[in-house]
Amino acid sequence: MASLGIAYVFKDEAAESDYLANISISQPRLERVDQLNRFSEDVIGRSYLQKARDLGRLPLPQEFPEFRALQEMFGSQQRIEKLASNLLRPSALSDARQSKREDILTFIAMIRLRGLKVPPFRKIPPESQADIKALWPSYRAAIEEGEAFLFQMGKPDAVRHICDTLAFGKKLPDDYYIHRSAEHRLPALLRLLAFAARQVVGETDYEVVKFSLDGRKVSFLRYQAFDEVPHPELRSSIRVHLPTASYTIRDYSNSDNPAILHRKEAFVDPLYPKYTVFVELTRQEEALGLLSRADIGYRKGWQALLSEKGLELKDHTVDRVADPS
Questions:
Q1: 20 to 30 A from 262, CA-CA: which of 122, 125, 175, 194?
Q2: Degrees (nearest 5) of the Cα angle 245, 250, 256?
Q3: Which range, of 4-8, 135-139, 162-166, 208-212, averages the lowest pLDDT?
Q4: Predicted structure pTM score
Q5: Cα(137)–Cα(176) distance, integer angstroms
Q6: Which of 70, 69, 64 is nearest to 52 (CA)?
């Protein structure tokens, strides 16, 4: 029936099928495409989509200040979320989801590490509730995975594997180093190890944190003026032995031959304010053949090499000594 008293009659089933397909599929699709295009081309719509990519899920209304404006243009919250879901590729959310998953697992493991009970679901912030709903079938599943994650601390192969996959930080055969400014980029397991170490010694003053690749030791290293001095000297270290919850403190402030740092750019994030300065210093030193000797890791060996080459450092630049005598 087309309307009261009016009917369509088709000469065969094929014609009827074409008509039904046209009214039930084609037209709604055209309308849907139009709505999707409007949403994706709208400034606020694009901002909403970017917020979703950052979160790894669709934002809650309170997480997006312009949500009311979106509702005025596109309708209900359910409709907005439907449009956004159709525009977001799963791959666009995967990195943010993985990062959020690691954050939640770290939180649960930290709670359990301190011997506390995980808070009831209703007690955690709405944003975290939304994250958990997006990532796990239930809160219980998230807690169980977080507790299982905690036990990875005792698996040396897991720590070594994670350090091997990182594209930042300084890796040596037995240890991994990172400047404290880049700790937020560490995978969840390394952040958990650092947290466990702080449960033993509390907050301490340091510039670089060192993880042993067997996952058993974490050291907090304090250096002289990391940003200002081209090759900072090690002033003190606190090494925490996690299996026994014990620690040792070493003071190098009066040492006549302390350890020094080279290749500082390896310790920091590429967005670190002085990253390019550090990179340029390393480039100069490599070009002059200064970084190939084994004894330059200590002040005396480094100073002897500079003297031998007739070089000196001014700020983060290598210069020839004006008067070699």
A1: 194
A2: 165
A3: 4-8
A4: 0.66
A5: 35
A6: 64
Q: Name the CA radius of gyration of the chain, rounded.
A: 29
Nearest CA among 236, 290, 235 for reference residue 263 = 290
How crowded is the C-beta side of 201, counted as CA atoms within 13 Å?
23
Q: Cα–Cα distance between 192 and 111 in angstroms, integer?
A: 11
Give the three-class secondary structure for 263: coil
Looking up tokens 């070009």, which residue turns up?
287
Residue 92, Cβ density class (10 Å: 0-12 exposed, 13-18 middle, ≥19 buried): middle
Does the CA dihedral 138-144-150-155 come out positive or negative? negative
Higher-scoring residue by pLDDT: 36, 62? 62
In 3D space, the residue among 50, 45, 81, 83 whose CA is nearest the CA of residue 66 turns out to be 45
Residues 6+ away with beta carbon under 8 Å from 31: none
Instruction: Report yes or no: 196 and 153 within 8 Å, Cβ to Cβ.
Output: yes
By the 8 A CB rule, do 177 and 209 touch? yes
Give the chain's largest Cα–Cα span: 113
The answer to whether 177 and 204 have CB atoms below 8 angstroms apart is no
Distances (CA, A) of 139 to 120, 130, 144: 9, 11, 9
Taking the mean position of all CA atoms in its chain, how far away is CA 185?
Answer: 4
Are residues 207 and 272 in contact, defined by beta-carbon separation less than 8 angstroms?
no
Q: How far apart are CA 93 and CA 281, in angstroms?
A: 38
Paired tokens of 123: 């007690």
Instruction: Report domain extents, the chain.
Output: 16-88, 99-152, 155-325
Exposed/middle/buried for residue 68 (C-beta within 10 Å: 0-12, 13-18, 19+): exposed
Asked whether residue 260 carries a pLDDT value surpassing 50, the answer given is: yes
